[in-house]
Amino acid sequence: MARDSSDLWNAMARSGEAVATEEDYEHGYKREVRRDLQQYVSFRVAGESYGLSIGQISEISKAFETTPVPRTADFVIGIGNVRGSVIPILDLARRLQLGWTVEKRSTRVLIVRHLGELYGLVVDEILDVVTIAPEDLEEAPGAIAGARGEYIRALTRIDEDILIVLELSTVLQARDFVKAGLLASAAARGARAT
């Protein structure tokens, strides 16, 4: 057997082709591992692809029973019980002003953590976990203005699709959870009291 491998080595050396040796691999053929890549969970809402950093997601659940809460904004479905914790459940499509989520078999609830609190975001379906390099994330164009533009942290391309990375701190603004009319009347009552 030793003779066969040395014959092969000699034949390759005589061919004139460059042959890598163990020494070459030890001195310069080291593969660099990138440590700045981020993983995102991609999901679909109203036909569009969105993503959140995997670190923001606590778990993914099938849709579950919720209890409506009076005097909340229309995108607040209610509250739900997740392993003994009562959390607000939001219709992400409605929050992004894309209509209402119609519950299907593929509907999921992303349980996200923000500022130490858990929230449930109802989405149409989970697509994938994708790895994105920081240089592949682009700022949202200035033409995307208004409330919807505030929800966008970055954009990137995944194959032929555009993935919109959400700004969770804007999506979960607690002051928006109360009906707009109630906030105005509370402010007016506070102004009269002073």
Commentary on this structure:
With 194 residues, the chain is an alpha+beta fold. It has one domain: CheA-289, Domain 4 (OB fold (Dihydrolipoamide Acetyltransferase, E2P)), CATH 2.40.50. The protein is 23% helix and 36% strand. The protein is built from 6 helices and 10 strands. The chain has helices spanning 2-14, 22-26, 92-95, 146-150, 168-171, 180-193, and strands at 38-45, 48-53, 57-62, 76-82, 85-91, 108-114, 117-123, 125-132, 152-158, 161-166. The strands form 2 sheets. Strands 8-1-2-10-9 form a 5-stranded mixed β-sheet. The chain is elongated and about 85 Å long. Mean pLDDT is 83; it is low at 183-188.
Summarize the topology.
Layout (H helix, E strand, L loop, with lengths): L1 H13 L7 H5 L11 E8 L2 E6 L3 E6 L13 E7 L2 E7 H4 L12 E7 L2 E7 L1 E8 L13 H5 L1 E7 L2 E6 L1 H4 L8 H14 L1
Parallel strand pairs: 2-10, 5-7
Antiparallel strand pairs: 1-2, 1-8, 3-6, 4-5, 6-7, 9-10
